[in-house]
Structure formats: structure tokens, C-alpha cells
Amino acid sequence: MAINKKLLSLLFLLAAVLSSSAIAASFSDSDSDSDLINELVSLRSSSESGVIRLDDHGISKFLTSASTPRPYSMLVFFDATQLHSKSELRLQELRREFGIVSASFLANNNGSAGTKLFFTEIEFSKCQSSFQLFGVNALPHIRLVSPTIKNLRDESGQMDQSDFSRLAESMAEFVEQRTKLTVGPIQRPPLLSKGQISILISLIVIATPFVIKRILKGETLLHDRRLWLSGAIFIYFFSVAGTMHNIIRKMPMFLQDRNDPNKLVFFYQGSGMQLGAEGFAVGFLYTVVGLLLAFVTNVLVRVKNLNAQRLVMLLALFVSFWAVKKVVYLDNWKTGYGIHPYWPSSWR
Amino acid sequence: MGGKAESGNASPKSESMAAKKASPDLLNSLSFKSLKLKTKQQELLIRVSILGLVYVLAFIARLFSVLRYESMIHEFDPYFNYRTTLFLTEKGFYEFWNWFDSESWYPLGRIIGGTLYPGLMVTAALIYWTLRFLRFFVHIREVCVLTAPFFASNTTLVAYFFGKEIWDTGAGLVAAVLIAICPGYISRSVAGSYDNEAVAIFALLLTFYLFVKAVNTGSLAWALGSAFGYFYMVSAWGGYVFIINLVPLYVLVLLITGRYSMRLYIAYNCMYILGMLLAMQIRFVGFQHVQSGEHMGAMGVFLLMQVFYFLDWVKYQLNDTKLFQTFLRITVTSAILVGGIALGVGTASGYISPWTGRFYSLLDPTYAKDHIPIIASVSEHQPTAWSSFMFDYHILLFLFPAGLYFCFKRLSDATIFIVMYGLTSLYFAGVMVRLILVATPAVCLISAIAVSATLKNLTSLLRTKQKVPQTGSTKGAGSSKVSSKVSLDQSQPFQKNGAIALLLGAFYLLSRYAIHCTWVTSEAYSSPSIVLAARGAHGNRIIFDDYREAYYWLRQNTPTDAKVMSWWDYGYQITAMGNRTVIVDNNTWNNTHIATVGRAMSSYEDEAYDIMRSLDVNYVLVVFGGVTGYSSDDINKFLWMVRIGGGVFPVIKEPDYLVNGEFRVDKGASPKMLNCLMYKLCYYRFGELVTEYGKPPGYDRARGVEIGNKDIKLEHLEEAYTTSNWIVRIYRVKPPTNRL
């Protein structure tokens, strides 16, 4: 922190000096340009994945007070910690992807091309005035400030929704289109690091003989029938609830009603689609009825108390009836089909 | 049962004869006894007649499509199958086997004999030849149309025997009834859906049944039968990969849970080795059984089986347990090591091919979406929502968990198999809608176990209660015997009225199932999709027969060597019905070629013209639903053309066709969209047309918007034909202008 503060005050000093001497020292442009670049490079090398964290001073120094055309473009990511909890904005995910693009750019551009583009971020709570300067009032927002732009409110460099829809890949495409620089192949960090993989493998290798021994003795969890049964029921539930659909399509659990934001929509009308909670609710109903049937015919009969038996059975019958009715009703509503029997035409 | 109990009480026969006059009760017992012989016959009679009725039911339920439309081939793939079957019956088997088709995938062509599963065609041709031999002169099309219902009927028989094998005859009967009308199966086997799945589900279930039978009996004959069933399956459908992975997995589970037996050894080894050798005779499959990663699991389990057998033998030879333990450790470790090294070397040297994309997309469901748009684009490859399960299984879904519970209560080699089959296939059904079909037999069987076991318990309970007052003095002995017979559960204290309520509930559910199935078959699954039906404003039926109109126009009005370009969905139909050469078709074997067509469709007209010239295209065919409101037309498929085209040619970029991530065709659409070839061809002259009262001209009914570009001029193409409802539009590609 201390170093940071020092650095910042240093920056501030430099900025003040530069701005005061800006008019006088226009001939020394190339000098100050290389200074700025050197500073940016050193800032970049000290920050994680090459994304420079700027504040109001940094913005004024590197963007507003630097004379155009600046020798570099700057890609600014607008972040707000207080909005991280709103998952539909995907701020954290986008920030991560932004970092990946930046790291890939750094890794693929070593020479002079590497100093033509800098990845920066500013945080709302610390740099509100910069947000105003850019005229940003909605997030997520990513802006490319090209060398010639004077007025920061100029929104031509804004990255569209569609440009970060495919995350790092489309961001890189956007950058390549606008700056004519090459970002190169996106380098994502592997899911497990090499160290973790080797530890996992060695653990598995060590465990194998013990597992084999236990299997041969026949005393593992694998021989517990109840475990298998619950596993089987779980797979069943997992499939019929349409969980795969939710995973593949990345469906949310529920939606907000468009007309009335306070209302939540849990059920989606239309047969090919479903929401997350909807699938689980119906899957639960399926499973309950099936298990009740098994329970009534296999467990309940062992209960000694006749009255308890009758009561539970009535309850089970009622619950199953209600569940079946509900599911059939929901299905008809969702698919829009009205299923009815065919009677002989003479009966009508 | 009551009768038997009583006769057991009056043991010596002569005694009972002497006491005949004295006791009417004993007279009763005698008549019961003479009935007893008949009961068995009666039971057999009832069983056979139920099976016969189910057989007929399975067939006639699938005839809705013929009644509502006409006897014709449905959808897309069946047209290819029909065309090849026709070729087979006309030219004979060898010509068929060596057929090089120059009419599709122009200019590449396609080796038909080596790239199809011939099982379906050969089956239909055999039926056709048999009928002709019996002097029934039917048209080959009728045979093709009715092949699927015929095999569905056969499947019910297999389901009966399978149910009998894993539980009892009652479960078998219920399974046969359930599968006969289950919508999940009917959707792929109505009359006219002449597709590989029609015979493949029969083959699949037959193979599984014979294998389970082989495991239960340990007989070589059943294992041999199972190998032949597998051969038939391999010849009929690519889904055989499911068998060759499920069976080894099953064997592995049996090994792990300590259920290894000589029966298993015989069944698996015979089935695997013979099945593999037989499967290699199918050219399309070839040496995949020893070379492809998808089949390596089966081979691994085969080798593991030998290790188990060897260890068993050594254990028998060695009496010293300590020595055996060391030996065991060394053998198992070295076996795993050798197997791993062999697999690694095989994969690294390229001898064993890695898994294909389709296989990956089953294990990691998000794979296809990111990597293979051509798989993800097909509507039947979409993931399944709960409503599709409900639609295709109805009450079977409720019964399935109960069935699972019953299976676990009475665990045997056979029930383990059906549980594994049910769970794996249900998982796959969740990943892809079309795989509901594979899961259907298992769901039917497991649900049948639940139904049959429950009904059996309840009815036998009702019967005992009725008998109890009659038998009077022999009550104790009788009921104890009955209860030991019924001993599936300890249903003794269960009340009669409770049982009746449960029974009524069960019958109510089953009748709902029958109603649901009939309705779904008749309204949802009998549409041929080549002839479209809609309800008019007055509730009357309107038929759109535009597809056939267009294809017959092609057949009669274009030169015989004309090349037609269309999106790949319509390739099979154009070759089969229009008899013209196509650039791409539903056999999506060459992604680049399809991407070229996608690129042409999504480029500006002059760029597309160069591509079409290079492919010698004479006609372009597009499907358009703007007039009729038909929603699965080319404009709605257009984004996939862009995606697939862009996957190979990066000049095509999806964002160019979208506005703020949204796909639009109205005034707000992106300029690239408004001027690409597909847009122009679909909406040419559409701006003049009033489609709906009270709406401006050029109102697209499929998307519910007014189109954005009403003034479309074509430069290199000209309209050749538009069908009566504008569903199919055909354009002629003009020859290059004379430069002199």
C-alpha cells in the first residue's frame, strides 16, 4: 500500500508538472510520450495480468492531459465493487475475461506493438469523477480510447453487448478490429495447475492398491445397496428435471416479470424451454409420487398400528393424486396441448 | 391358489372320494382341482391372446398418419432410405453395395455403399421379396411405409420376453402393453417414418434380452443369439455404440460388486468376440471395433475378464492364501500397467482414433455447443426440457422410481442390467431429445415392474380376504400358505378397502396413460412434415403440399443434369423426389462443403454468384414461411448457416447479422442481413404482397414483423418458380453475361 501511495503521489506530482508545462513544452512531445509509455509499462509489469488500476489522477495524466494523438490506445474497463453481487451484470466474469485478454496480449506482443495498447480498469467508488468524465452511467461498460480521441465522452469506442457476448474471444476481435493490433490466441489458464494434477495422479496411484484390496474383500460402500438406490434415484431426478437443459443453455432459476419487476416468473410457457426452478419442482413431484408408491407397498405394510397405516395411506393417495394432477395440468399449460379422449361419434 | 391350498389339506385321494357325499365343501375342492388344470391353460390362453392384441394394437396405433394424410414417406432421412431401398430392389445387392452416387455432394459425390447402415434397406427389401414370392404384388413404397409399425409390433414381443426374464410374466405383459403405445417410441415409428431407428430399437432390445438371458443361463446358444442381434443392430444404426459401451460397463459393475461367475464369462466373451467379428463385416463400421477409442472400453473389459478367470484358476491351484495375495497384487498392477501403456501407445501413434465429437457431446454436454455447430444446430439434438419427458413418458415417469425401488429390493444380475440401462439412457435422453427413444424400452420395463408387482400384491390380497370366510376351518393353514406364495411383500395387515383404493388409483392412472398416448399419437406424432396441415379460421383443415409441388416442378421442368443448391436439410428430398443433383444433403459428412453453401447464402449477391459459379449451381431453392406462418423455414435457420459458414470462413461474422445481439428482419435489421442472398431470395417480391388483413404489405407472418427491405432487385438470379403458398421458392442462376 505504502509503495502504491508513494507511486500515486509521484504520479500526481508528475501530472501537475506536465500539465503546467504542457503549453510551453509542446516541442518536447516525443520525450514526454516515451516517459508516459515507460511509466505505463512499469505500472503494467507490477499489476496482475497486466491490467493497470487507474484512479482520477491516472486518467487525467494518461488521457485528458496527454496531447493527442497519444502514442497508445487504452482499453478501459469500468468496474464497481458494489455491483458485484448482481449476477446478471456478470461484472466479475467479464473482468476475469478482460484480464485474460490482457494477459494474452502481453504474452503475444513483446516488441514495440506491446506499448501501443494498455489495459486499464477504474473502480466506481474511487473514481466517480472519471466516470462522469466518460459519461458512463450503466455497467458493464468497456471503452477503447484510441489515440486521436480528445473528448472522453465520445462513445465511438464503446464495446457493444455483442462484442463481449463470447467473452475473451469476442473482446479480442473487437480490439483487433479497432486498433489493427493482433491480440493473438487467447491463453486461458488451465483448469488445474500442473502441480495439482501431479498430486492428484500420485494420490490415485497410491490409493489404487487399497481400493482393489477392499473391493476384493467386498466391504466397500459399493456393496451398500441403499447407496446405489439413492444414487439411482438421484440420476433419475437429475435427468427428468431437465438439469442438463439448464446446464447446456445456462438457464437462470427464474426470471423477472417484464411488466411488473416485483413479480418473479417461475414457469416458462413453450415446450422447448424451461427455467431452472421449474424443472426441479416438477422433477420433485415425479420422484415423490414414485417413492410414495414404493413406500406404500413395501414399508407401510409393516407398520403394526392399523389407524396410522390407514392415515398415512390416505395421505399418500391424496398427495400422489394432487401431484399427478398438477403435473398434467402444468404440462398441458406449457405445451399448449389440450389432451382429451376420443369417444365414438355417436356418443356426443 | 385357494384351491390348491384346500387340496393340500385333503391329502389322500381315496379318502376324499369316500367323503364326497358327506361334505359339499370337498366337492368344491375337487372341482377346483379339475379347474386347476384348466386354469393353467386358461392363463396361457389369456396371455397369448393379450400378446396377440398388443401386437395388433402396436401396429394399428401407428397407422394414424396414413389415415390422416396418406401412405407416404415422412421427413428428411427416410427419403434417402427410400431412394436407396428402391435402388437395392431394382439393381440388386452387389450394385447397391458398390454404389457411387454422383447426384449428391456435387462435385464430390458420395460412396453410398460404404457410408450407410444397410440393415434397414436390406430388411425392407427382404420383406418385399418375400411378399412377391408369396404373390402379393405390393409397391416397395408401401413396404417401406409399414416397416416401422411392423417392427414396433415385434418389439412388444421382445419386451414381453425381456420382462419375463427380469421379473415375471405379469411384468412382461405390462411391459409389452406400455411399450406398444408409449409416445417416446411412437414418435419414431409411425407408418412412414422409414428411418434406421425403426428397426434399431427392435434390434437393441433383442440384443439386450438375449444377453441377459445368456448371463442368466450361461448358455453359449443364447450368447451366440445375442452376438447376432448385435450384428443386426450394427448393420442398422450408429446407436450400436451404446450397446458396446453399456454391456462392458454392466460387466464391470458385476465384477466390482463381486458377482463374477462362469455364466457371465461365457456370455460376455462369446458375445464380444463373435459380435465384433460380425460387426466388422459392415463396411461403414469396418475396423472401428479395434481402432476407435469409443470401442476400447469393451476390449479393456474383455481383457480384464481373462485376468479374473486366470486368477480364479491360480487360486484354485494354489492353496497358500498369502502367496496368492502377492500374486494377485502383481498381476493386477501389471495388467493395468500394460493396458494403460498399450492404450497410450495406440493413441499416440494414431492407431487408436480418439473419441468423436458426438461421443464427447454426450459425456460433456456443453462440448457440442462450443465446438461443433453442425451437431448443435439439429433440432433433435437439443437438450430435453421436463415437458418433453412428460409428453413422451407420461405416467411412466411417476412409476419409474417405484420400479427402481422394486428392482433394488430383488437384486439379481438381470435387474442390475435393466437398472443400468434405464439410468444411463435416461441421462443421455436428458442431453439430447432424440435419445428419449433409446431410453423408452428401459423406462417401460422398469415401470412395468412397478405396475405388475403392485397390482399383483393388491389383487392377491383381495382374493385371500375373499377366500378366508369360505374356507372356514382351514383358514389358518390356507392363509399361511397363501401368504408364503404372495411373499413378495408382507402385505398381511393391509386392509381390503385400502387395496381397492390403490387398485382404482392404478387403473385410473393407466387409463389416463392410454388416453394420453392415443391423443399424442394422433395429433402430434403423425405429421409427415413434408405435407403441412393447419387449422383454418373456421376450424377446417388446410393442407399445404408445397414441398412436393416444388420437387415435382424440379423433376419436370429442369434439365436432368441441373444442380440445385439449398440448405442441407432439403438435400435428401430433392434427390429422392426431384431427382436432381444437390450440393449438400442431410448426410453431413463434409463440413467445409456445407460451410461453403452457408457462406454463399449469407454473402451479398455478387459474392454468392462467384461461389455458385464455382459449384456449377443452376438453381437455388429456399424455404420461406412468411406467407403461411410456417416457422421452421430458412430465415429462422439462417443464423446456423452463418455460424457454420463462419466456422470455416472467418469472413462471415455472426455479429454482422445481429443488432444488439438480436436477430431481426424488419427495418431495424443490420444492413448485411437486409442484403444477403438468403434475405433477398426469401423476400423477393414479398413487399408487394398483403398477407394479413389490417397489416401493411410485406408483413411476415412467421416472425410477425413488417420486412425491412421491400425493394429487392436481383442481378444474377431470376425467379423460376414459387409454390402456391410461397413455402418453396426456386431461382435460376443466370449464365454470365456475354462479354463481347
TrEMBL record, chain A:
Keywords: Endoplasmic reticulum, Membrane, Signal, Transmembrane, Transmembrane helix. It comes from the Eukaryota. It is a multi-pass membrane protein. One of its GO terms (cellular component) is oligosaccharyltransferase complex. The chain crosses the membrane at residues 197-216, 228-248, 280-301, 308-324. Component of the oligosaccharyltransferase (OST) complex. Subunit of the oligosaccharyl transferase (OST) complex that catalyzes the initial transfer of a defined glycan (Glc(3)Man(9)GlcNAc(2) in eukaryotes) from the lipid carrier dolichol-pyrophosphate to an asparagine residue within an Asn-X-Ser/Thr consensus motif in nascent polypeptide chains, the first step in protein N-glycosylation. N-glycosylation occurs cotranslationally and the complex associates with the Sec61 complex at the channel-forming translocon complex that mediates protein translocation across the endoplasmic reticulum (ER). All subunits are required for a maximal enzyme activity. This is Dolichyl-diphosphooligosaccharide--protein glycosyltransferase subunit 3B. It comes from Microthlaspi erraticum.
TrEMBL record, chain B:
The chain crosses the membrane at residues 44-64, 111-131, 143-163, 169-186, 198-224, 230-253, 265-284, 296-314, 326-352, 389-407, 414-430. Its cofactor is Mg(2+); Mn(2+). Keywords: Endoplasmic reticulum, Glycoprotein, Glycosyltransferase, Magnesium, Manganese, Membrane, Metal-binding, Transferase, Transmembrane, Transmembrane helix. It is found in: Endoplasmic reticulum membrane. Its EC number is 2.4.99.18. GO terms for molecular function: dolichyl-diphosphooligosaccharide-protein glycotransferase activity; metal ion binding. InterPro entries: Oligo_trans_STT3, STT3-PglB_core, STT3_N. The keyword Transcription regulation does not apply. Gene3D superfamilies: 3.40.50.12610. Pfam families: STT3, STT3-PglB_core. It is a multi-pass membrane protein. This is dolichyl-diphosphooligosaccharide--protein glycotransferase. It comes from Microthlaspi erraticum.
